[in-house]
Design goal:
The complex is a heterodimer of chains A (111) and B (112). Chain A is mainly β and 111 residues long. Helix content of chain A is 0%, strand content 61%. In chain A, strand 4 and strand 5 form a beta hairpin. In chain A, the strands form 2 sheets. In chain A, strands 2, 4, 5, 9, 10 and 11 form a 6-stranded mixed sheet that branches. Chain A has no helices and 11 strands. Chain B contains no helices and 10 strands. In chain B, strands 2, 4, 5, 8, 9 and 10 form a 6-stranded mixed sheet that branches. In chain B, strand 6 and strand 7 form a beta hairpin. Classes of the chains: A mainly beta (111), B mainly beta (112). At the A-B interface, strand 4, strand 5, strand 9 and strand 10 of A face strand 5, strand 8 and strand 9 of B.
C-alpha cells in the first residue's frame, strides 16, 4: 500500500531564504508526482507535475525533483517571500489515476 | 469556465438532513474526483469518474454517500442523513490527459 510522507510538518523561515520541502513515498512504481499549495480555507493549486520519466520540473522560483528509485521528491523554493506562506502538498499517482496525498508541510515565511 | 467550480461554497445543515454538493469540472476533462478534507487532516479519496466507465467508489465512507456524473460533465455528491462527523471540506478535482489534477475551491459542510 502506497504511503506518502512529508517532512517537516511545519517550517518557519525568514524572507529571502532558499528552502527545501521533502516528500517520500513507499512504492516506487508511480505514474507521476504533483506538488500543490493550499491557502487557508481554499482549494489546492497545482504547482508542478513530474511525470515518471522525468527527473525535475521548474516553474519560476520553484524546482521539483523526482528520484523514483529512492522514493523521494523535493520542492525547492528560491528567495522565499511572505506570499509563499501556505501548506504544500505532494501527491503520487499509483496505477493510472489513484492519487495518494501526503499530509503537507505548513510553511510560514516571515517578513 | 477557466477552472473547476463548486457550489455551494458553504453549507450548514442539521443532523439527519440530506445535502447535495455540486462540481463543474474543466471543460474537456474526462476524469473527475471527489475528496474530503477534515480539519487538520490530509485529503481522503472518495470517488473517481472517468468518461463512461463505472466509477471507482472505493473511498465512500458509508452507504449514505453517493455521487453521480451526468453527461460526463457536472457531478453531484449526495450525503443522506448527515451526521456531525460528515463536517469537512469537500473538494472536487478534474484532470487532464497528463493526469494533472486541478481543484475547485471546495464546499465547507457543517453539520450541527
Amino acid at each position: 500500500k502506497q504511503e506518502v510522507t512529508q517532512i517537516p510538518a511545519a517550517l518557519s523561515v525568514p524572507e529571502g531564504e532558499n528552502l527545501v520541502l521533502n516528500c517520500s513515498f513507499t512504492d516506487s512504481a508511480i505514474y507521476n508526482l504533483q506538488w500543490f499549495r493550499q491557502d487557508p480555507g481554499k482549494g489546492l493549486t497545482s504547482l508542478l507535475l513530474i511525470q515518471s520519466s522525468q527527473r525535475e520540473q521548474t516553474s519560476g522560483r520553484l524546482n521539483a525533483s523526482l528520484d523514483k528509485s529512492s522514493g523521494r521528491s523535493t520542492l525547492y523554493i528560491a528567495a522565499s517571500q511572505p506570499g509563499d506562506s501556505a501548506t504544500y502538498l505532494c501527491a503520487v499517482v499509483s496505477g493510472t489515476y489513484k492519487y495518494i496525498f501526503g499530509t503537507g508541510t505548513r510553511l510560514k515565511v516571515l517578513a | 469556465g477557466a477552472g473547476v467550480s463548486q457550489s455551494p461554497s458553504n453549507k450548514v445543515t442539521e443532523k439527519g438532513k440530506d445535502v447535495e454538493l455540486r462540481c463543474d469540472p474543466i471543460s474537456g476533462h474526462t476524469a473527475l474526483y471527489w475528496y474530503r478534507q477534515s480539519l487538520g487532516q490530509g485529503l481522503e479519496f472518495l470517488i473517481y469518474f472517468q468518461g463512461n466507465s463505472a466509477p471507482d467508489k472505493s473511498g465512500l465512507p458509508s452507504d449514505r454517500f453517493s455521487a453521480e456524473r451526468t453527461g460526463g460533465s457536472v457531478s453531484t455528491l449526495t450525503i443522506q442523513r448527515t451526521q456531525q462527523e460528515d463536517s469537512a471540506v469537500y473538494l472536487c478535482a478534474s484532470s487532464s490527459l497528463r493526469n494533472e489534477q486541478f481543484f475547485g475551491p471546495g464546499t465547507r459542510l457543517t453539520v450541527l
